[in-house]
Amino acid sequence: MRGRRRRPVGQDCIQPGANPLHQHQTNHQVPEREKQRTEIQVESNVVVAVRVRPLTEDEHNRGDETIVYCPDQHSLLVGASGQERAFAFDVVLGPESSQHAMFQECGMTRLIDMAVQGFCCTVFAFGQTGSGKTYTITGPHSLFLEGSHDALLAGLMQRSLSYLLQLVGQSEEGFHLYASYLEIYNEQVHDLLNPCLPYSLAVRGSRTQGFYVENLSVVEFHNLDSFMRILEGGMQNRQSSSHSQNEHSSRSHSILTVHIKGMSTQGKLCVVDLAGSERVREGDSIEELLEETGNINRSLLTLGKCISSLVDPIKRNGHIPYRDSKLTKLLSDSLGGSGITLMIACVSPTLGNLQETLNTLRYSSRAKRIKNRPMVKRDLREKLVVSLQREICRLRQENLLLQQHLSSAHKAGAGGSGLEAKYSGSMSSSPQHAKDVAGIRTGSSCSETSLRSLLQELMRENDKLQ
Ligand SMILES: Nc1ncnc2c1ncn2[C@@H]1O[C@H](COP(=O)(O)OP(=O)(O)OP(=O)(O)O)[C@@H](O)[C@H]1O
């Protein structure tokens, strides 16, 4: 018996290595010259990883037949013995794969490295209902609903954030991290961090920002504990229900976005857990449930159409039907734009789910032909102002030191050259200079022009003092 409830509260195989998610280049290896302009990486395919879940207890007790095999880390055989179909993907993880292996092998660390460098990176899990999407992204429901603290079961989300916090902690960029968390349920966007809002949020489009959700809460966090509070609160507010295929089925698409703001970069990591596709069965006659399933299937269908258009060399440059669903609007940048995308296809191993498994794998095979053109836009002006401010501070220190030397030479009786009197205090005589120094000291913004003239003034004076 199923019953929906809303909880209250608060091809062809791409060569691994040919893809940016498999190239391990750390931040400090990027040449400085490259960092200072709008960066565009060569076109890269969407990376697709497939995870096959193990038999559930019920399937095991019923003696369900297994029809999915993983001969190696890049291939899958699906179907009854002698009639198997072969598929190849970037990464294939079998039923025995641990959560740790999933995180290490699917290309997630590279995705986070690139988000820190300023790219817009997205990972999304998709597949039939009950195929293991939520387990892969956040770990089993027991972690959130039953208070289990088994760290080995933590999903990609927790592992990714732990890795991200480690990366930004080691950097001198002074990164700030912010999170937002939303769900799309029946084509309506709800803020999972502010569930008391009586209305759904609007998805707007702008030339500069692309599609975005208006008035969505954004919360700053500093460590894994504060991130986990955000995640747990949001998870408890998600729409879920129990049905024949899954006791805790997510009935909405969820998108958790982590904004990574550096000195001149604004990277983004989006983690998307799609609602499972599900066939409507006899007896599922409750109108609300039919509408819910219809909406899930419709937005997944639109996603499928966008993917088909994106891999078609002719259609790709024409109209892509992103606007047909909120999900595709919000994923438009990850799929067809300047982002980097990792797709995780989850499949069940049993004969009873063969058709759905084949659908998911065909969908994934098409998706891995999508090409992205990853791009990071740096705010060069902001970066320039910061470097001018640093240079001015350095020159002022040098200036101070030179004046001290001059003063001690004078006191030692070297004779009044007049230089000390001439130069000491000369920098503070200009009101503009005093204002700029105050600005630099308080960290308030100064214009680039006034910073440049101050810099030149300091350099001239230091030359004279030397
Ligand atoms: N890799 C795995 N190892 C062990 N158990 C798993 C694994 N993947 C999934 N499961 C179990 O299978 C069941 C279904 O998984 P999950 O809820 O993650 O599916 P889902 O794809 O998110 O479903 P829905 O779309 O209905 O929300 C759960 O009981 C989960 O604990």
Report the C-alpha radius of gyration, rounded: 28 Å
Q: How much of the polypeptide forms β-strand, as a percent range? A: 15-25%
Ends distance: 87 Å
Fourth-level CATH superfamily of the largest domain = Kinesin motor domain
Please work out how many helical segments DSSP would assign: 15
CATH structural class of the largest domain: Alpha Beta
CATH-scheme architecture of the largest domain: 3-Layer(aba) Sandwich
- What's the CATH topology label of the largest domain? Kinesin
Bound compounds: adenosine-5'-triphosphate
Largest sheet, in brief, is:
9 strands, mixed
Q: Shape from CA axes? A: elongated
Query: Helix proportion of residues, in percent?
Result: 25-40%
Tell me, rounded to a whole number, the average pLDDT.
78
Count of β-strands: 21
Describe the protein in words.
The protein is elongated, with a radius of gyration of 28 Å. Helix content is 39%, strand content 22%. It is of the alpha+beta class and 466 residues long. The chain has 2 domains: 353 residues, Kinesin motor domain (Kinesin); 86 residues. It binds adenosine-5'-triphosphate. The site of adenosine-5'-triphosphate has 19 residues, from helix 5 and strand 16.
Question: What labels would you give this structure?
Answer:
single chain, 466 residues, alpha+beta, Kinesin, 2 domains, nine-stranded mixed sheet, three-stranded antiparallel sheet, 15 helices, 39% helix, disordered N terminus, binds adenosine-5'-triphosphate, motor protein, cytoplasm, microtubule binding, microtubule motor activity
